[in-house]
Design a protein that fits this description.
The chain is an alpha+beta fold. It is about 25% helix and about 35% strand. Strand 10 and strand 11 form a beta hairpin.
């Protein structure tokens, strides 16, 4: 548990003092990075339903678009996590958030870090999630595990991070968020 406490202290110590300015696109979203408080902590991820219009079948964090009734971006992350995998909002100890990241779909996505007790039962909403799995937290935060490719998109250079875990390809914004967290803690 000491490693998890070190992670929490280090994460909270390295929170960005000034948030990156959010572009006024009107499109904001949030994801929850659920850390499960185990002897060997894990990070909960989902495999999106293959029937979805966008990002079908991809590995993702629970999350999505902000709704008008969401009072904060944290409320968005908690609501979406409840809708997608039945994580009760009152069971999440919010540790903080990372600076928003721009998605290819034009959303400003704010990653919210939350600590969950080990005794929760998760239930995938089949219209959004095909499966739920866990990755050892410190494995996911190991920068050496990440590979990347550089591409040009709309004439701009982009780096796409990815890594494999137990047959799951974690890539794109999800991998970029974890990679950014690992860099911040390094």
């Amino acid at each position: 548990m000491t490693e998890l406490n070190d992670f929490i202290n280090r994460f909270q110590f390295t929170l960005p003092l000034a948030r990156q300015p959010i572009k006024q696109t009107g499109k904001s979203a949030a994801v929850l990075l659920p850390i499960i408080n185990k002897v060997n902590p894990t990070l909960l991820l989902t495999q999106r339903s293959p029937l979805l219009r966008s990002h079908a079948g991809q590995v993702a964090f629970p999350g999505g678009m902000s709704d008008p009734e969401d009072s904060t971006i944290i409320a968005t992350a908690l609501r979406e996590a409840y809708e997608e995998v039945a994580i009760p909002p009152e069971k999440v100890q919010v540790l903080g958030q990372l600076a928003p990241m721009q998605s290819y779909g034009g959303y400003q996505v704010t990653p919210v870090i939350g600590l969950l007790p080990d005794n929760l039962t998760y239930q995938a909403n089949p219209s959004e999630v095909s499966s739920i799995f866990e990755v050892p937290l410190f494995d996911a935060l190991s920068i050496q595990r990440y590979k990347y490719i550089d591409i040009k998109r709309a004439g701009r250079p982009n780096r796409i991070f990815f890594y494999w875990y137990n047959g799951h390809l974690v890539w794109g914004l999800t991998a970029a968020i974890i990679h950014q967290l690992a860099l911040q803690l390094n």
